[in-house]
Amino acid sequence: MSAEPGKQCVLDVRRAARLSVAPMMDWTDRHCRFLHRLMSRHTLLYTEMVTAPSLVRGGAVHLLGHDPAEHPVAVQLGGSDPAELAQATRIAAEAGFDEVNLNVGCPSDRVRSGRFGAVLMESPELVADCVAEMIAASPVEVTVKCRIGVDDQTPEDLLPAFLETISAAGVTRFSIHARKAWLQGLSPKENRTLPPLDHALVLRMKRAFPHLHITVNGGIRSLGQAAEFLEAGLDGVMIGRAAYDMPSEILLGADEKIFGRPGRKSAEQVVEEMRPHIDRHLAAGGRLHDVTRHMLGLFAGRPGARGWRRTLSEGARHPGAGLAVLDAALACLEPDAIAARA
Prior knowledge:
342 residues, alpha/beta, TIM Barrel, Four Helix Bundle (Hemerythrin (Met), subunit A), 2 domains, 8-stranded parallel beta barrel
């Protein structure tokens, strides 16, 4: 017996969440997501964080722009006003996203001053109010991305209580960055690397809350690591910087190794498949660099990768730069990379 359409959508997104690319400010824009989708058909992709005020009060619906090819794709919202988040959720769902995620993990000063992001770990009842309103407004699943705690909180005590409170409001899927966020004394960049990782705590949360869908995030650098977490019982793995910095290492093998589906592309093929997207962007008045800045790591570790990065990063910034820059960058690679275009 097949699932109802709405339930089937949830099932499809949860299946995709076995592996996801983390939402990353200034990185996971629509061009990045288009590139990543060419590399993996099944991985779940996330937008950069979009603030609820920008959608509701600012009318910045253009921030929700995405290509139909990006699905399955989720939008991440930032905010702390339940009514405003409900409106933003409705707008995002109407824009066609497969999931709406609430950011309870970003440690930046700008986010903190707006009373959302990781600082909300200190206010679980407010988060519960927010997600309850979002769920009531949304035809798609509402999820939460959080940290294991902030500042002087004790994660072993805080995290289970947080999960219990938020799940009681209706959320059943969480992505947990396995680090504290130090809101006092560390920069956002330092918060990505300095607080120690506690993956074991996330695994314990899955055992303590078996009915919840739990994804681990933080410090995961390979598909091998991802597979180990899945084998250990977690429902999903979210990879951030590694998926961006060396996308071929993470995403080209993801469909086969994580989803049991055929892998079928090389980095060279992906470059060729990006050409029509780049053409459309240039024809609409966009700059080459808008797209190619996300492609710099495609050949990481390959002979000629340094020349590829240098040629692309420098040449794509010039006014009027076009696909000839891409050809010049490809010429820096070993001959087999160029032969793939023949």
